[in-house]
Design goal:
91 residues, alpha+beta, Alpha-Beta Plaits, 4-stranded antiparallel β-sheet
Length: 91
Amino acid sequence: MKKYVVEREIPGVGAMTAEELRGAGAKSNEALAQLTGQVQWQHSYVTGDKTYCIYLAEDEGAIREHARISGFPASAIAEVKSVIDPTTATP
């Protein structure tokens, strides 16, 4: 499976309560259950009006299908080609 970053434009998401975010996560999980084996949600970063979600998926189409079923927009989808961090900067 490939790794993707999914940008979702959701106005006011950063002001949601923990309970509201839990509900959104449950809704996402319900959609994932319908796509078993095609897409996996790893985690999301919540900002003011956007979320940045990390997924493993067969292809971009599986991400789009999750967005359709869940009702959460997939404003932009980018395949992760590589990961760098402080440890990759040293030989």
